[in-house]
UniProtKB/TrEMBL annotation:
Keywords: Oxidoreductase. The keyword Cell membrane does not apply. This is D-arabinono-1,4-lactone oxidase. The lineage of its organism: Bacteria, Bacillati, Actinomycetota, Actinomycetes, Glycomycetales. It comes from the Bacteria. InterPro entries: ALO_C (IPR007173), FAD-bd_PCMH (IPR016166), FAD-bd_PCMH-like_sf (IPR036318), FAD-bd_PCMH_sub1 (IPR016167), FAD-bd_PCMH_sub2 (IPR016169), FAD_lactone_oxidase-like (IPR010031), Oxid_FAD_bind_N (IPR006094), Vanillyl_alc_oxidase_C-sub2 (IPR016171). Residues 16-180 form the FAD-binding PCMH-type domain. PANTHER family: D-ARABINONO-1,4-LACTONE OXIDASE, L-GULONOLACTONE OXIDASE. It holds the Pfam family FAD_binding_4. It comes from Glycomyces tritici. The keyword Oxidoreductase applies. Transmembrane segments: none annotated.
Length: 427
């Protein structure tokens, strides 16, 4: 079994670097179980698409990427049981070929299933829950190396899906599927800021999935992306404009001036769901990690006021933001989901890769959003005090009890998860 000790690792963006005491890459499930049982403390290395220390550890680091991922589709139950480390790109291709669909995907299809679910990552759409809401069952390798499955309906289920890597190593995830469907994607240019705020509900409810992009600045405008299921379209052609924003006359990238070749097909060309729901094609790596990211999730009802508050920082934001994306998602009951208990709007910031320049502007944005009790994305940059973040999750205490029960020695913790769930934050 491969074992490299020690080794230096970094996340996708390269802004987080750490050196675990051991790096283990088991080739089989049995080897993985042995490694996990033997390690005093460990974290799992996924696809690395995080921007804070959520995955970092100076203890044992385990990667399951050397085990051939699997995806078993059950047509009778309409589910797929997949290896946790499989990417959405690989899984969606298998699901599509079987005639099914996932309910949603994130902007990038390159990320792993387990990591996305563990952090409450999402796509968009007023009626679409985040990616974790598709989970029907999740199978963990526990601290003793034994397999433990938690299924929808079990008492522990709502606390086990968005788990920050603190409840075990994910072996498999079972996801609900939909019948396969086709989509069309349209982009509109130059949507005026005041029009977007005045008609926010109409814009976000107009299609299966929508996104609003702005680079901020003194006079911000939005680029409006619409992803429509063909079966839902009542007219053969899209409307010529939305509140004064014309239909784009060519393909667009969310970041102004960037070549759109990496983006999924637009301009109303019909295609399968998995080639339209993400913004980017799997064969491209947008930005190649040359960026930092933050996201703050607020109650949907507060979205126009929150955007107005951010507009007061427009010039400062514009100096360090590559692009900001506004997306919607439905409320859920998963204890650590950023959309727990409220229909939610995500305000996503793709920053330039200069933390010293970004940090004070990020803090200013957090201050502007403070009246709206933002919940930061668990895998992205934020400076909101962890005690304050904890207070915004009504079931945090229940999660702490669950964690103490399934991992009493804290084997799967690190500084980040300990601060979230009863470690450093309570000392």
């Amino acid at each position: 079994m491969p074992d490299r000790s020690p080794t230096a690792l970094q996340n996708w963006a390269g802004n987080i670097r750490f050196s675990p005491s051991r790096f283990e890459a088991p080739a089989t499930l049995d080897e993985a179980r042995s490694v996990i049982a033997a390690a005093p403390r460990l974290r799992v290395l996924g696809s690395g698409h995080s921007f804070n220390t959520i995955a970092a550890s100076d203890a044992t680091m385990v990667s399951l990427a050397g085990i051939e991922p699997e995806a078993h589709i059950d047509a009778l139950t309409g589910t797929v049981r997949a290896s946790g480390w499989i990417t959405y790109a690989a899984l969606s291709d298998a699901v599509h070929r079987a005639g099914f669909a996932l309910h949603n995907m994130a902007s990038l299809p390159h990320i792993s299933i387990a990591g996305s679910i563990a952090t409450g990552t999402h796509g968009s759409g007023d009626r679409n829950g985040n990616l974790a809401t598709a989970v029907a069952a999740i199978e963990f390798i526990g601290p003793d190396g034994e397999l433990r499955t938690v299924s929808r309906g079990d008492e522990d289920f709502p606390g086990s899906v968005v788990h920050l890597g603190a409840l075990g190593v994910v072996h498999t995830v079972t996801l609900d599927l939909l019948p396969g469907f086709e989509m069309r994607q349209y982009v509109y240019d130059g949507l005026a800021f005041d029009q977007a705020l005045a008609h926010f509900d109409e814009l976000t409810s107009s299609a299966y999935s929508t996104s609003l992009f702005t680079a901020w600045g003194a006079s911000p405008v939005f680029q409006y992306w619409v992803k429509q299921r063909t079966a839902d379209q009542t007219h053969p052609f899209p409307q010529a404009n939305w509140y004064g924003a014309p239909l784009a006359d060519g393909k667009r990238h969310p970041v102004p001036g960037v070549d759109p070749e990496a983006c999924t097909v637009q301009q109303g060309q019909t295609g399968p769901w998995h080639e339209r729901l993400p913004h980017f094609k799997p064969e491209f790596t947008p930005s190649a990690g040359d960026e930092l990211q933050s996201e703050f999730l607020i109650d949907r009802a507060d979205a126009p006021a929150a955007l107005e508050a951010l507009a007061g920082l427009g010039e400062r934001l514009g100096s360090v933001v590559q692009i900001c994306e506004v997306r919607t998602m439905a409320a859920d009951d998963l204890w650590l989901s950023p959309a727990f208990g409220r229909d939610t709007v995500g305000l996503h910031f793709t920053w330039v890769s200069d933390f010293e320049a970004v940090a004070p502007v990020m803090s200013a944005a957090e201050a502007a959003l403070e009246p709206f009790s933002p919940r930061p994305h668990w895998g992205k940059l934020f400076s909101i005090p962890m005690d304050e973040v904890r207070s915004r999750y009504p079931r945090m205490g229940d999660f702490e009890k669950l964690r103490a029960r399934v991992d009493p020695e804290g084997k799967f913790g690190n500084d980040f998860s300990d601060a979230v769930a009863g470690g450093a934050a309570n000392q």
